[in-house]
Predict the structure.
Amino acid sequence: MSLRNKVSLIGRTGKEVEIINFEKGKLAKVSLATSDFYTNALGEKVEETQWHNLVVNGKLADIMEKYVTKGKEIAVEGKIQYRTYEDKEGIKRYSTEIRVDELVLLGAK
């Protein structure tokens, strides 16, 4: 059995795509909201939203830049990636990102 780091998400972008240009290409970053619903103990339907940080490079970054706007519904597949870094004050920070390998544009927006 092969164990793989793979994630599939469908949701809406929470902001405009941020583009970072490098000598050999570009990187696109955007947040994605996914929602689940459940019924609480009082019988009320409750919506629970999770936010995911997407990181996209290569040709997919070009597609994100051109076609993805705030509120756009998209489907992505990729890998979970954990990073640590120091902020400007020297405090160690942790980041969880989804490195996107596949992108499907959904909806009309």
Summary: The mean pLDDT is 93.
